[in-house]
User: Fold this.
Amino acid sequence: MSPDAGSSNICSRVYKTNLVGNLFMQRLFIILLLLSVGSLQAQEPSTLELQREFAKRVEEITLSNGLRVLIYKRDVAPVFSGQIWIKVGGVDEVPGITGLSHFLEHMAFKGTKQIGTEDYAAEEPLLRQLDELMLTPEVARDETWQERHDATLGKLEKLWKGNEFSELYKLQGAVGLNAGTGKDYTVYMVSLPTTAIEFWMAMESERLLNPVFRQFYKEREVIQEERRMRVDNSPEGKLYEALLATAYWSHPNRLPVVGWPADMKNLSARDMQELYSHYYRPDNMVVTLVGDLDAEELRIPLEKYFGRIPTSNAPLREVYTTEPKQQGIRQAKVEHDATPQFMLAFHKPVYPNKDDAQFAVLHEVLSGGRSSLLQRHFVQQERTAVSIYTTEAPGERFPSLFIVGARPSQSSSNQELKTSLLEYLEKLKEKAVSNERVEAAKRRVRVGLLQSLQSNYGLARLLGKNELLYGDWRVAFEVYDDILKTTAADLQRLLQTYVVEDNQTYVHLEPIK
Amino acid sequence: MKHFFFCFFALTLLSCASLPKMPQDVRVEPLRFNPELPDGITLSNGLVVYYGYDSSLPLMSGELYFRGGSLFESQPGLASAAGSQMREGALEDIAPDSLDSKLDSLGASIETSFGQEYGSAGFSCLAEDVDEVFALFSRIVREPAYDAKRLALWKHMATESIRRRGDQPSTMAELSFQKLVYGEDSAYNRIPTESDIQSIEREDLQKFHARFLRPNGSRLALSGSLPPKKAMELVRKYFGNWKAVSEPLPELPQLKPSAQPGVYILKRPLNQATIIMGHQGPPRHTKDRYAMTVYNQVFGWSGFSSVLFQEIRTKMGLAYSVYGGLMPGERAGTFRVGMATRSDEAPRAVTRVWELIDESRERPYSEQQSQEAVTGITKSFVFKFKTPASRAERAALLAMLGYPPLYDKNYLSQIYSVSVDEVGEVPRRWVHPEKMITVIVGNVDAEDLLKTIGEETPVFELEFDTEPRIGERVNG
Assistant:
């Protein structure tokens, strides 16, 4: 069991590899065919074929309020995974309220008007009273303030029923009850025995409809602890935060999803209510269900429970800030009580740009597996790196970063390793990698997909994310087509286009002197 | 008559469109399922094979479990090297680089390792490649070459990783806790030094491998889309002539005494303190195992609804991560509580956890708490059987670890029969405040801590360069 067991948030980063890894569930016959032909001469199925095969199994239901529900039946065990996807995350925040959508995700576990309280009618005025009190600036808080605060909190604590929301889930055998907030979205997930499907609908629709932000100020402390653990006391976390704040000058991708410390201390219930009212609406959400369920039987109850979430006429806020083209190297240094490591990052486009899919192959060629180029050269042969990886972050809605990270071995340093890494990448621009490597990489991407098909959770994630971010889960197949078409020349072009000095950000962590 | 049908239809519609219920009012039918695991098939050499047939994907995977691990090593680091190098060091006729390229080009994997008490070797691949990959897998398990160059690379990497132990507060806390709880020079606490690593030779790995890798007593969990008959043919082809070894396996080593109970502070310039507290715990096979499972749920293993989480996180806002409970081990496991809290709140958090531990011993949990834990455990039991692969692996591991054959069949009734008194008895029998060792890594001042916890608890300084060392006692 991990120390985070049962905690309510997970990741503030969204790695593209996860998306690709889950892209193309379940057109098994076709994949089987494709793979049995042999990796080099494989005949690639068209997007259309893939869509058709897949579409047979995905049931799409749109409720009267516009909420989209995707259902996929899989009957290997009498269980299901349910997920709620909402398009709100770090990119929807501005300085002053950073961390708010993640904080809201935590608060969505605090219950509703009917869950988590002895008496909401008595609680509601007290909650307002406490919010008012907490808006008093700290310098203006005197003894009477403290007394009033303690008295109000004391009364509230008598009305609160612990973690009743999660407790109810536990009593139905729930596993994997959790949620996550990234740059682009918030997602709530849980798995249950199939007999609890109506219970799940009641729970999730209730928290979308009537959440109550109780225990707000204690939870505000909790998210600050989360920040200390994931960022302040983690070399990787600190370096990553510096990377985003350095690589992005204007786009909100530069802001940490967990929030800046001073913002977090001051997040208010009023701001949270506003964020919730604006973004938690049917046209900005997707529900996915995967497991031993029958879509036809769910149609009416889904409408009954989720159909009651009110629509909104207010236009959804757009993120209109874009990142101007980078013109010259950016860099930052972080000092921390740890051994050195660094990240090199390059701005890159996201879907629907065709280059996006090809990056999936580039990652495999560079750092996927023991025989990958960077692994073999820097870790095994030169031994100047103890680890080296490539990844993509921080999001998928807006232009993202291609990242190469490494830890130098004792015989090397950040600076030396970075220099030789860049030289190595320069050589790859001049001479394309072998076709054999590219084909092997594509095969690994495909096998990875197949392996990720095995869980209800993974499939629910695939459907939810694509439907939410791109308006159609079928988008996954378009990407798949582009991945399979990738050639060695394409990878060479990617490096020539994006891995250039003007587009480079270098952040390094050095031990405290 | 027509009229009647119309009314009936209207009524049906009406009842379907009934009002949404509150979750508490939704009637959930009990789930009926059979907690069935695949039967083991025993080869003539003693290897037991469990197969999970799953035709939904053209994939195959497997995991072989065998006895042996760091508990039995003559020098620290040996089991870790022997485990990883089984795969890394490839085969006599296939060099490590060729093996890596081969597997990467197939999108296949083979991985091997030794833990403390047992080791495992696993593979995964496309079903169409299974003959080739399974052949390699069996050879890796049976006749690894332990390539000298790869061993040199391993030594280099292991040395580098020793140098990086101080990077993460959680690593420092964990290593310190293990060392203090299991005592100096104990097989149950292995923290290799650079010279340990450098002294490991290829012959040591070969001897270690020869001592433990054998069909008799090992268990193979296999799953995938190959028809069961074909799968067994494959196993017989590649493992059928693997020779049984009659030499008995070594006994488990003796436990050593823990360090002196008390608080150990490793001071670091961090704004959050990483805390682990606990002591040696129960063996794996005890009649208390079911009551212990229920106790763990109530106390600190069940996420949001546990007492620890409710109190430390929800009520006090002191931690994001907090968990705790009894973790059985073959001979002795651990009782442990872990959390991370801002450095200046560490004294308050530690004191509160100690109180919660005391309370659990003095005032047993209520009938309701115990009942709710039982409900949670039994209703989620189905998830242990969610795929054919998870069923095969569970069967292999339960057998490997010596669980009774009908363990799963009887599990639910055993959990249901746990009484609230038995749950109350668990912490009194297995949790010992007087033995508690509390490790704190963070910017915590011993003087401040003593003001909160009282002078009677011994407080020591800890040092950590690349491994923990007990420093001066601060008080008394």
Notes: Chain B touches chain A through 88 residues (CB under 8 Å). Confidence is low (pLDDT under 50) at residues 4-16 of chain B.
